[in-house]
Amino acid sequence: MELESLLPRVTKPARYTNGEWNAAHKDPAGVRARFALVYPDAYEVGMSHLGLQVLYHVLNSHPDYLAERAFAPWPDMEQQLRARGLTLTSLESRTPLRDFDAIGITLPYELTYSNVLNILDLAGIPVRAADRGADDPLVIGGGPGAVNPEPMADFFDAILIGEGEEAILEIAEAAAEDDRDAALARLGEIPGVYVPASYEASFAGAGPLGSVTPRNGAPAHIVRRIITDLDQAPFPTHQIVPFLDTVHSRVTLEIMRGCARGCRFCQAGATCRPRRERSVATLLRQAEEAVAATGYDEISLLAFTSVDHREIEELAAELVARFGSRGIGIALPSMRVDAFSVSLANTIQQVRKSGLTFAPEAATPRLRSVIGKPMTEDELFAAADAAFSSGWARFKLYFMIGLPTETDEDVAAIADLVQRLVAFGRGALGSRAGRLRIAVSIGAFVPKPHTPFQWVGQDSRDSLNHKQHILQRGLRGRAIKLSWTDADVSALEAAISRGDRRLGRAIEGAWRLGATFDAWGEHVDFSRWERAFREADLHLEDYANRTLGVNDSLAWDHISCGPEKDALRAEAEQALGRGEA
Amino acid sequence: MAQLVCRYRKGNQIRWISHLDLKRTLERAMRRAQLPLALSQGHNPHPRISFGPPLPLGATGDAEVLAFYLSEAMDPGEVKDRLNQQLPSGLEIVEAWLPPRYKKKETFGDIDVAEYRVGIRGDVRLTDVSLRVSELLAREEPIVERGGLRPQRTVDIRPLIFSLSAEDAGGTGIELRMRLRTGSHGGARPQEVVTLLGLEDGETTICYHRTGLYASAQPSAARRRGALHRWTRTRSNRERREAR
């Protein structure tokens, strides 16, 4: 096997060797459609993504379909593949990706888009949908990034908007068609599936202004798919157990989908409504099955805010009672900023204590009310108090800079708040004060489509850098560890996130200049992107920084993700005052 | 609490799994097999597994050893069967037994010799390699440099090579057989020997396979009973002949 000879020459060869527990090895002879499910990042990131495991499970549970996996090869492996003229294959049967009927690619976040093109190219599949022929597989996208499909529209034959548990089988049925055009026609008839070639994009000046209109009777709006009954939805209890240490090496139980909160910057919260929960009985059954099938020693309760599950206390008590004595821990990955969350974390984490994370996002009451984050400083201090008195001496805080209406005073207030927490913590911890560690993570606000802040331009990079300096000066001290995202990278994320169909030229250009793994600090090279935008005759600032008119037609208006534009506009006006946005 | 010792095989399918990843894989398989594992006390309870000398990444082996604790005594054969049903392909428990009575617990600290077969395919000739082998064995001090990016230090590995020979592997290349010192008091790695022989030029395909782990100094209690250390079971044909 040729791949075998490359393994001694690359880092973490286990990324490419498969054979993990619960991986499916299905006979292709008996199936009607073969899928390669691709996550466009490194193996250990992709294998921590529950969505991939869900679709893998749904397809392989069906007698007519088969799914295998592929990930972005690390640059050292890419170099080996290209040097030897080898094509990218699936993990399970090492079948070249181009021999599958369909390639399903997750669009997890904007900075993976260059990897998508690289994967298609390594597979020998033309990157542009228009260049593909009868023998090429269908290239189908989906996932969180699909809520604005326009920047990637030229590279996909079809893109699913919304949740995939049910739609994937309808897509597989279409992919089973022998004739590519017939398959594309059938894809276009599936609710929630967007076939970009059936739409004409027109532009109204610079930036994401313009509209996308249907040709040949395609629907004017693509309405996002949702699962109505989460409790009955398929869930993979026989999750693949990677050999490698992945980002999350544990059982992931999705306890709830959607969010009842209305933080105005949050795209996931806005596009995954309504909130749906799994019942305690279902979750306990799934937990038992998953632990027995995987052998993991930790169960993570996944949700945007796990604490918001209506029966979280009952679920937590029951899980601890059943699994605690077996040395199996329970983790709460997302918390509210309040004492209840801490006391829940305290009861739940009897086996292993993991860290606590709070996300106040902004440090002044005014700015928190602008972004719709309902949290008071008293709640934060009560949460900290509860944490210190139950033995935690370290936690993580998330803040954002560049939020709409933010002033330097709002930024300085972050440093002030953290310093007051440090002083409070020293007092509360007494003799253990030396152990106090507060990790402060500063993100930059990125305006996202389908949120009330979609019209707001991102802070300029100069301003973001200036605000970072304020925090670097104000957040010194032994107990504080400060980290932030690079302003250039945040601007890139904003530009792609609010991109239109023209932006695909910049993405392709950047990839041709060598961009891959842009989400990895050691790989991203902003100058490639600057050059790619220039060569595509586009300005990054038009997409990232421009404030758009609330009555303008936007590049993603043909995608319906839940909230109506009127409702978003009303929210924006409530937040920012009429006429400000 | 009862300790159980296993000899296992690490095959081709999982030879790229690092020692740390292998440890996690075994822990998970043990939980899937629902063995009554004794867990360590403290902040992060985990099964108490100890291993013989780790295999280099990419190497296979069929005389590997591990030991772990159960909270209650179980028949070793049953543990072996239940565990094998839960192991990914390429990993197999060949034999399980209770530690010998003269040992309070099995730590594998007495293992000090490892035997390898190294298959080399590519543009290599047996006569040429055999010559290099005898040159290497005759050299006063074959030196290797260690330390990676840290300050380098040089080690004389000649005293750590107990035996080394090259044989024809039937038209597809050659096979090196070597016995090297291993363990916590310093050892030689098979890759170092291959490098010293000048066989690692990027064009050859090299497969490392460990065939045996030995304890050269058997404790007197074991000698008295004529007990053979269990992990010395996999022996080369030559040794079997010599034993006879």
Separation, N- and C-terminal Cα atoms of chain B: 39 Å
Q: Tell me the CATH architecture of the largest domain in chain B.
A: 2-Layer Sandwich
Largest sheet of chain A: 6 strands, mixed
Q: Fraction of residues of chain A in helices? A: 25-40%
Extended strand count of chain B: 10
Radius of gyration of chain A: 24 Å
Oligomer: heterodimer
State the CATH topology of the largest domain in chain A.
Answer: Rossmann fold
List the helices and strands and how they pair.
The complex is a heterodimer of chains A (581) and B (244).
Chain A: H1 2-6, E1 33-39, H2 43-46, H3 50-61, E2 65-71, H4 75-83, E3 102-106, H5 113-122, E4 138-142, E5 158-160, H6 167-175, H7 180-189, E6 193-194, E7 199-203, E8 210-214, E9 222-223, E10 251-254, E11 256-257, H8 267-271, E12 276-277, H9 280-294, E13 298-302, H10 312-323, E14 329-331, H11 339-348, E15 356-361, H12 365-371, H13 377-389, E16 394-401, H14 408-429, E17 437-444, H15 461-474, E18 480-484, H16 487-497, H17 503-512, H18 526-535, H19 540-544, E19 559-560, H20 565-576
Chain B: E1 2-10, H1 19-32, E2 49-51, E3 60-70, H2 76-84, E4 91-97, E5 113-121, H3 126-138, E6 143-146, E7 153-156, E8 161-168, E9 174-181, H4 190-196, E10 205-214, H5 220-225, H6 237-243
Parallel strand pairs in B: 3-10
Antiparallel strand pairs in B: 1-3, 1-4, 2-3, 5-9, 5-10, 6-7, 8-9
